[in-house]
Fold this sequence. Notes:
By secondary structure, the chain is an all-alpha fold. The chain is built from 11 helices and 2 strands.
Amino acid sequence: MLVWTIPYILFFLGLVMLVKGGDWFVDASVWTARVTGLPEVIIGATIVSIATTLPELFVSAIASFEGHPDIALGNAVGSVICNTGLILGVTTLISPSRIINPRIFCLNGFLLAAYGLVFCYLAADGMISKADSVLLLLLFAAYILTNIAVIRYKKSDSRIGSNPGTRPVPRDTALNLAKFALGITLIVLGADMLVEYGSAIAILIGVPERVISLTLIALGTSLPELATSLSALMKGHKFISMGNIVGANILNLSMVMGVSSHFADMPVKPHTLYLDLPVTVILIALLLVPCMIKKRTSRPQSVLMVSIYAAYILLLGYLHL
């Protein structure tokens, strides 16, 4: 009996390591940004988004390298679905009617929509190839450069100033360097355990790896985004969660899939083409279109997003009973 429970225990342990490692890495990344004088907007748009997407990156990259393409692809696509439908849906439900900065949101929203369509186009032939990985990584670079260009423009605009750097205290420096090192170590080890024992659980209970990656693993690797979004809400920074989720989705479609498909060609199965990707597109559209029209989020919008996510998870379970 104990032998059967070991994969579940180690899967949960890997999940805890992944979440805690991501939490420490986010703290260290934000501290680094602040002491170097970067404005907070770039912290949310780039550094925090990259840090909270590291679990997805390591899980998918390791899965691809170890010959589990279904986990690699399912984790990235599932994380976009989870981020948008569940995490952003829940946080918007808790705190609706956020007024959106139209210029910033429209730019990143346009990039998210464009990257989503490009990814669907690349997947349409049934394969994300190593050649496709080059394009995806170029899109990742374009996203980072675009945000840097926006920050430089805003720093020159008298309406928005930059945050001056704060002199680091030696004790804080040592603490954050330790968080950085331990965080990245826990992320790597936790991601490896999540892939290995997630595959083992899939075999034990007879569920395809794709379903495990789209649900348990995707939710697990999205927990840093959830923690960051809820923490931002509690601290009164309502826009951080929106920017973090939009940025994390862009990074999942470009950075995570670009790195993962670099290790091996990634087959895209019919279930992904005709269920997972359409749900992804619907959720992205449901997030972006109302916000661009009304310049705010609303509770009915969030209820619909959470409902679509719940229906999607139930459908996955029904199809693989």
